[in-house]
């Protein structure tokens, strides 16, 4: 079996995952490791009826810069100078100054085929399942990148940038952009603060029938 890309335990990795927006154009691992992670996500993350509708694009270096310059141009045209200069410009600069971005897409042809082929009782659920699988790809990669010592944040400038991104990188027109995951080495002093106060567990988790029995070795 191929050696694992991330060696941290699953629980540790999920506890380490946070949102970090102040990032440098540096990495802790070779680009090939990040590409391997993207491949592993594609090959291992589940989808409804094994429909495999999620698609990824990974951009590094000048392509990453280009993505954020496309986003900057589109936003400026949409919101105007005043709002652009009132904070948005700096926010986008933070992303542009990071190391790379993973773009998450859904292939609309796959989504349509799943709806057509699904039994009648599931037809109104398939769109939701396509989104759920995309979210699983996002969580997989967010957690894994942070376990590799990178800082990560998740952005949503779709659908504003879809057409220009598709044109620039020849991405099929039936792919629909869902999210942009920015990564890089966290800037000094950008460690995330205490986790926001979480709602009381009992409001969000109900457990029934659990038994405290010894687990066999
Ligand atoms: C579905 C989803 C959408 C999000 N969208 C954005 C976003 O557009 N921009 C952003 O900066 N953070 C976004 N976030 C990050 C959340 O704000 C962040 O995960 C949350 O506040 C908890 O903080 P933590 O990630 O440090 O645990 C998103 C997170 C999720 C799960």
UniProtKB/TrEMBL annotation:
InterPro entries membership: Frm2/Hbn1, Nitroreductase, Nitroreductase-like
Alphabetical UniProt keywords: Cytoplasm, Nucleus, Oxidoreductase
Keyword Oxidoreductase assigned: yes
GO molecular function: oxidoreductase activity
GO biological process: cellular response to oxidative stress
Subcellular location: Cytoplasm; Nucleus
SUPFAM superfamilies, A to Z: FMN-dependent nitroreductase-like (SSF55469)
GO CC annotations, alphabetized: cytoplasm; nucleus
Residue intervals of the Nitroreductase domain: 16-184
Family statement drawn from the similarity comment of this UniProt entry: Belongs to the nitroreductase family.
Name by which UniProt lists this protein: Nitroreductase
Origin species: Penicillium chermesinum
């Amino acid at each position: 079996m191929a050696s694992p890309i991330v060696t941290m335990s699953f629980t540790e990795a999920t506890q380490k995952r946070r949102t970090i927006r102040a990032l440098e154009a540096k990495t802790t691992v070779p680009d090939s490791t990040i590409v391997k992670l993207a491949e592993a996500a594609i090959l291992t993350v589940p989808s409804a009826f094994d429909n495999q509708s999620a698609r990824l694009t990974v951009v590094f270096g000048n392509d990453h810069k280009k993505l954020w310059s496309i986003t900057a141009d589109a936003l400026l045209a949409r919101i105007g100078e005043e709002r652009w200069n009132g904070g948005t410009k700096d926010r986008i600069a933070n992303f542009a100054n990071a190391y790379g971005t993973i773009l998450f897409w859904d292939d609309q042809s796959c989504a349509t085929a799943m709806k057509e082929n699904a039994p009648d009782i599931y037809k109104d659920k398939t769109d939701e399942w396509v989104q759920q699988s995309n979210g699983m790809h996002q969580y997989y990669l967010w957690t894994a990148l942070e376990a590799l010592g990178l800082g990560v944040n998740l952005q949503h400038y779709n659908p504003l940038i879809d057409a220009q991104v598709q044109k620039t990188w020849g991405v099929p027109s039936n792919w629909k952009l869902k999210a942009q995951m920015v990564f890089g080495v966290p800037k000094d002093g950008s460690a995330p603060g205490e986790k926001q106060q979480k709602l009381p567990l009992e409001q969000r988790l109900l457990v029934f029938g659990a038994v405290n029995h010894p687990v066999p070795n």
